[in-house]
Predict the 3D structure of the following.
Amino acid sequence: MGDLYAVDLALNLRATVPNALVDELRWHLGATPGADSGPSGAPVGGPAEEVALLDDVFPLLAERGPAARIGGLVTGELHRTGAGWALTARQEVHAESLPDLDPLLERLARHSGTEGVIGQIRFYEDHVPDLLISESGSLVRLSLRPDGSGTAPAYPPGQP
């Protein structure tokens, strides 16, 4: 459990967000049955290679209750609003799951009605997070770690 990251999301999604993304988000939040469906809500039970792919996929935002390492609670909520959807999530995500989380974060930024900070991610032992920013529909990570000038430059996911 030593490779945990604190992931906090708080954003609004536009009313034009595709239903498939809302369904996937509900699945990741644990709001739809997970044992017999994949992230798209499609029943599991196709060819063996499809089932094998889904064996490694699990909801990333579904934990609830006391956090194991980051303090406080882990939670996640998605609510319909007059202008689209409101999402708030606070989770502990294992480092091995970050490659699965990144594409979801990119899709959320693409459909975000929130311009600017939509969340943060922090290794659980660190004191300073990286901000998750939606800039014109693109996800940008801004490291707040000191580099001599007070902040590090923004960089896209996957780049140091």
Remarks:
- Residues 98-110 form the longest helix (13 residues).
- The radius of gyration is 16 Å.
- Residues 40-54, 148-155 have pLDDT under 50 and may be disordered.
- Residues 9 and 36 are 27 Å apart (CA to CA).
